[in-house]
Design brief:
It contains seven helices and seven strands; from the N terminus they run βαβαβαβαβαββαα. The protein is α/β, with parallel strands linked by helices. The chain has a domain at 2-132: Response regulator (Rossmann fold, 3-Layer(aba) Sandwich). The chain has a five-stranded parallel beta sheet, with helices on both faces. Strands 6-7 form a two-stranded antiparallel sheet. Strand 3, helix 3 (59-68) and strand 4 (76-81) form a beta-alpha-beta unit. Helix 2 (33-42) packs parallel to helix 3 (59-68). The radius of gyration is 26 Å and the shape is elongated.
Length: 196
């Protein structure tokens, strides 16, 4: 993954950098929030690991700018902080922070957070792929999967997302399909139920 480390403390920055270099990630390093923002604007960053309190632009301000971009790629944002009150967490979540790391940093906690980030970014990528291009039969509305098998739309979406479906009839289909069938059965007013 392409990971941006935004940290003004040299010791914390070094811990994160050494931990992530061992994992083979592409790293971008910023000593303050403005430098971090410049890197985000010009590089395909997947994850930001940012200190909360930094010069020029705080971690929260940086996160708000990331969330305010028009770019489509989601950036997973991990905030590093010694601030641990519920109010601080609420403020960070409202700014768009995805996860937290407490100071002092522990390499094992950092790697755990990155596994979560990777999993979530993979899910987001799968969802985007589903939304972007889906081969569907123009007649029966079946969907073709990656192995060229055809599935009913409900079963395909259920397999991909776990979504369950309930069926109903929209007003247009009621007028065009159901009402003529009911009239053909001799029901004078198909919209009103017969008394039992």
């Amino acid at each position: 993954m392409n990971i941006l480390i935004a940290e003004d403390d040299p010791v914390s920055q070094r811990i994160v950098r050494l931990t992530l270099e061992k994992q083979g990630h592409q790293l971008y390093i910023a000593d303050d929030g403005e430098e971090a923002w410049e890197l985000i604007m010009y590089h395909p960053i997947h994850v930001v690991i940012s200190d909360w309190l930094m010069p020029k632009l705080s971690g929260l301000e940086l996160c708000r700018k990331v969330r305010g971009r028009r770019r489509r790629e989601y950036v997973y944002f991990i905030l590093v902080t010694a601030l641990s009150s519920q109010e601080n967490f609420n403020e960070a979540m409202e700014a768009g922070v995805d996860d937290f790391l407490n100071k002092p940093l522990r390499p094992d906690a950092l790697l755990t957070r990155l596994r979560v980030a990777s999993r979530i970014l993979d899910f987001i990528s799968q969802i985007r792929e589903l939304k972007r291009l889906l081969p569907i039969c123009m007649y029966c509305k079946n969907i073709r999967d990656d192995q060229s098998y055809w599935h009913q739309i409900e079963s395909y979406i259920h397999e991909q997302t776990g979504t369950d479906f309930i069926h109903s009839i929209c007003p247009d289909c009621f007028e065009k399909k159901v009402k003529p069938e009911l009239e053909g059965l001799g029901d004078p007013d198909p919209a009103s139920p017969k008394p039992a």
